[in-house]
Amino acid sequence: MRLILLGAPGCGKGTHSAWMVEELGIPQISTGDILRDAVKEGSELGRQARSYMDSGELVPDSVILGLMRGRMAQPDAARGFILDGFPRTIPQAEGLNGALGDAGMKLDRVLQINVARDELIHRLTSRRVCPNCKAVYNLDFKPPKQGDICDACGASVVQRDDDREATVAQRLEVYERQTAPLIDYYIARGLVAVIDGNQGYAHTRAEIETALGREAKR
Ligand code: AP5
Q: CA 89, CA 201: separation in Å to the nearest integer?
């Protein structure tokens, strides 16, 4: 199964990828995680990406398309994947079509997760993440069990640099301008299932499971 999770920063793409990886047995491919790892390693990709990410802007399409072609060609992606944060522009969507077409593959579904703007800002500014295992927490909804210690791996959880309020506002503006047009792009191709992400985790998960034609498990 080849899926896209499409939605604004903070709508729950990473949160819901976590259980989908287990349930569907396919990898999550998060361009944000790949770029943050590159920044941490100080690689050439990381050097190119850092200033865009810190200011809430998108990394250039040519950079993203190059890295995604390589990632989607890896063996673990042969049976399918969950794309989290890609594509984010029409040229990226066209590039994805080309890469899938070259490999004789097609997309199965685009899950468009809707969350109100005030809720997105609240979720992002109170999010904490584990820089080691990538687990996602929220100070209000899902705090780590012990202080700032990751439940899964014991590392210290942190606030992402781009989760400070001014950068969050810029990311939301960039989403509306550059990424939201993808909704109509994929509606025109008959691929979109709309998910109400405003409710709690279990409700959103059940909507996704229904959209994928699976038994809701809570
Ligand atoms: P990226 O890492 O992709 O960030 P994003 O799209 O802005 O999405 P987030 O990871 O912030 O949010 P999410 O939807 O995963 O939400 P989460 O599940 O964590 O990209 C970062 C940057 O990299 C970009 O700004 C750009 O510069 C660059 N980049 C990446 N991809 C690119 C591309 N393709 N092209 C160009 N540049 C690119 O949830 C958020 C919080 O809410 C968490 O705390 C969670 O616990 C909580 N939460 C989730 N669901 C619920 C719920 N139902 N109820 C209550 N709380 C909830």
A: 27
Choose among 31, 134, 160: nearest CA to 85: 31
Domains of the chain are 2-217 (3.40.50.300)
| Planar angle of CA 191, 114, 80, nearest 5 degrees | 40
Q: Which of 2, 13, 36, 123 is catalytic?
A: 13
198 with 119: CB under 8 angstroms? yes
Query: Residue 157, SS3?
Result: coil
Q: Is the distance from the beta carbon of residue 205 to the nearest atom of ligand 1 less than 6 Å?
A: no
* DSSP-assigned beta bridge partners for residue 113: 195
Q: What are phi and psi of 139, to 5 degrees?
A: -60, -30
SS3 196: strand
Residue range 49-80, pLDDT digits in tens: 999 999 999 999 999 999 999 999 999 999 99
Give the separation between CA 202 and CA 58, rounded to whole angstroms. Answer: 31
**Digit-coded pLDDT (tens) for 111-137:** 999 999 999 999 999 999 999 999 999
85 lines ligand 1 (CB under 6 A): yes
Query: Does 9 sit in the ligand 1 pocket, CB within 6 Å?
Result: yes
How far apart are the C-alpha atoms of 3 and 191, rounded to whole Å?
A: 10
